[in-house]
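Deviation from plan, reported transparently: iron/sulfur cluster complex.
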Amino acid sequence: MTAAPEQIDVLDEAREQVLERGVGLSEAQVLKVLELPDDRIPELLALAHEVRERWCGPEVEVEGIVSLKTGGCPEDCHFCSQSGQFPSPVRSAWLDIPGLVRAARQTRETGATEFCIVAAVRGPDKRLLSQVRDGIKAIREDGNDIQIACSLGMLTQEQVDELVAMGVHRYNHNLETARSHFPNVVTTHSWEERWDTLKMIRDAGMEVCCGGIIGMGESLAQRAEFAVQLAELEPDEVPLNFLIPNPGTPYENYPVVEGTEALRTVGAFRLALPRTILRFAGGRELTFGDLGAKQGMLGGINAIIVGNYLTNLGRPAQQDLDMLEELSMPIKALSQTL
Ligand code: SF4
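Because the crystal trials were delayed, the predicted structure below was used instead.
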C-alpha cells in the first residue's frame, strides 16, 4: 500500500514532535491530519493512543453530569435545545437539592471521580449560585467525596472567587468552535467573552475544562484553527462533542458527523493536545455507535461521561464501565491531595 509522501510526513513529524517531545501539532499540521485518507486512520489512531499513554498515562477519568437548571436559556447558540429562543421540546426546569444529592451519590457509586453541576444560563445569578452553594454543602454532608465541577456560563471575577470558596475544583466553559466560525453559531455573545471567563478561571487556580462541538458547518481548516486555539488555552480537559441535530434548533437538519471523520478528528485533537484530558462527550452514540466508542478509546480519548448528557440520553453507565474493563483501562482514582 502506498500513500502520498506528504501524508506520511505529517504522522512521521507527529511521532517525533508530539510523541517524543510532547509538543502539540501546529494549525497547518492539524489540517494535514484532518485531510488524511481513510486508509491512514488506523495508523493515526495508533499514534494518538501512544501519545495519550506516554503523556497522560493509562487511566481514564469518568465523570457524571447533572442539570441543575434545564432549558429556557436566553442565549441563541444554534446547536442548543436549551435555548429559549428556539421551539425545541426542552422545558425549563430546576432540580431540587435532594435530587442533586441523589445524582451525586449515584455518580460516585459508578466509580466516577467527577460530578459536574450544569445550568442552562448566560451566567449565574444570585439564586443559582446559592443553589449551587447549598447543593455542594448537602453533597458533602451526605459523606460524598466526589470532586465537584461546575458549568454555569459566563462569570464575573466575584463569581469566580465565590466558586473557588465553595471548593469547586474545575469549571467547564466551552469555546464551542473556532473563533472565525463562532459568529455563525452564536450571536448573543462573543467568543472573546467566553475566552475572558476562561482566563479568570485559570488565573483563580481552578482547572479549566473547555471544548466544543464538531459538525456545525465549520471547514476542516476551522477545525484545525479550533484545535490550536484550545491548545493555546492549555485546558486541563477538553470535552469533544459531535453535533446532535436537535429538533427545533437551527441545526436540526445538519448531517451527523460520520464515524471515520469523527475518529480522524479525535486523533487530530489528541496530537494537538498531547497532555490534556480528552473527553468523549455528547453525540458519540449517534456518530460512532458502540464499536466506534471503543476505537476512540484506543485513539487518544482518556475520559468519558457516563449516563445522561443533559438533554440527550447517553448509554447506560455500566456499558461504558464494562468497555473500560474489557480494554484494561483503569478508572482514575480520586486525587488524594484534595
Ligand atoms: S449559553 Fe449554554 S445553555 Fe444557553 S443556549 Fe448557549 S449552549 Fe445552550
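The longest strand covers residues 61-70. We consider this an acceptable substitute for the interim report.
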